[in-house]
Amino acid sequence: xxxxxxxxxxxxxxxxxxxxxxxxxxxxxxxxxxxxxxxxxxxxxxxxxxxxxxxxxxxxxxxxxxxxxxxxxxxxxxxxxxxxxxxxxxxxxxxxxxxxxxxxxxxxxxxxxxxxxxxxxxxxxxxxxxxxxxxxxxxxxxxxxxx
Length: 147
Fold this sequence. Notes:
The chain has 9 helices and no strands. By secondary structure, it is mainly α.
């Protein structure tokens, strides 16, 4: 997806000095957009979907160790559903920055996301239906091959 013109457009909205870390910020922001606008993309309520995801994680014995350690906390704190709130974007980016070798790369990015909120939201709204169509076509092709 990084080579998609709409993603390049969205990344280009960030200041030049941010370009190296803009992809991280954009991924988290797009998670927010998806959770915020879930009702536009699925008939299944977000809370129902996230509940299913958390049950799959709880029942999967072969999770990578790092995910197995955090999955119970993800479910208890509803990490996926909480992305509906923009404030969670800043919390998520702060957590990610603590794991980077250069955490200063994300310093101030939440303010930039706030300033870019509308244009980046518009980029997401244009991009996500294309991503859905691509995924549906890939699944249909896979079913045809598996036939």
